[in-house]
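Teaching soon. Invent one.


***
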Amino acid sequence: MSRRGSRALATTLALLTAAIPFASLALYVIAIEAKAVLEPLGFNGTASLVLTITLPGIGWLIATRRPENPIGWMLLAIGFFYALTQLSEAYVLYGRVAAAGSLPLPDLMSWLSHLIWAPAYMLLILLPLVFPDGRVPSRRWRPVVWMAGIALALIVIPSAVALWPYGGPLLGPGDARPPARDAAPGTADLLQYAGLIMSLGVAVAGVAAIVTRSRGSVGAERQQIKWFAGAVFVEFLAIFLAISTWVVLPPPLDALAAIIAAPLIPFAIGIAILRYRLYDIDRVISRTVSYAAVSAILAIVFLGTVFVSQALLASYFQGTPVAVAASTLLVAALFQPLRRRVQSVVDRRFDRSRYDAERTAAAFSGRLREQIDLGNLYADVRGVVAATVAPATVDVWVRQTSHRSDPAPGG
């Protein structure tokens, strides 16, 4: 396919995928008004809507600018199937309650909603295996792709056959429904469980592929893997906090957390593949770690000061906010010195190249004030530039000032 044809295909698929979430949201809002849904979207619902918009958007950017990279097309496909899953579920919900059974083919849409998620899920767990160039690390990893295809077939085909009689198009309006299946798992359930277990194996292989690439990567590829791995870590941390019972965010904070956390992986993939501000990941990591450490230390200092002052001086400051005020002033005074100290330690660990470059440049500026020999200065400049910037070639141009003699009197 030509570049213009691939761009047209990517644009069409992205626009179609971006329109589906708005239809799902409209059906969902109508269902809420009809008392079909009593709970707000929350973290999961908001994250789903955000992903159905950001996945095709980032996929379109990659597919139109790097059409040879399959990851852009994978993101478009994931977003498309995921959006169809949300639309089918909203359609079934609206058709069964809000529309009182007036919508056509609600059972067919219900049947599809149980199947469409599987291709999106399988493509999603295949992403780490082929990141960042869209290919497996070597031929030895190709059986993992075959295993993913077998797992997808085991998930979809038995479930499609087992669920087909339940309101599918083979039944007419007056036909009797077949009896429900027994509670005990049947052949279709066992095959689907086997497919899910195989998909977990594919996910573990994807993590192993990322680790393998990271060990042998240099330059831009290493920065790409850092962006992806950092986004995945934050994403899973947000999901863990969202499903845990000891951290409960009230509305609308849960929706706000989903809006911030959900698009991290698509954005990181877009930055890594398009290489936009690629080398900023080291500074992002160092700043994130440093501010998290400073916040934790200051929180401990604040709480410790409050508890200690209240325990020791309770008889003097009973019922007054002096302890809290003193702790606040102490934290404010410690913030800048502590931040600089922690930032220096973190930079030495996570951003060593920038840290070394800054120290080299600072040392050179100190020597420059005392250097008067041009030969030594020339060698020093070349060494500092090579160490801090690492260019392909280094050269120094010294401007020569010409002194013309004054004309002779009367000349």
Summary: Residues 80 and 119 are 10 Å apart (CA to CA). Residues 281-312 form the longest helix (32 residues). Confidence is low (pLDDT under 50) at residues 166-184.
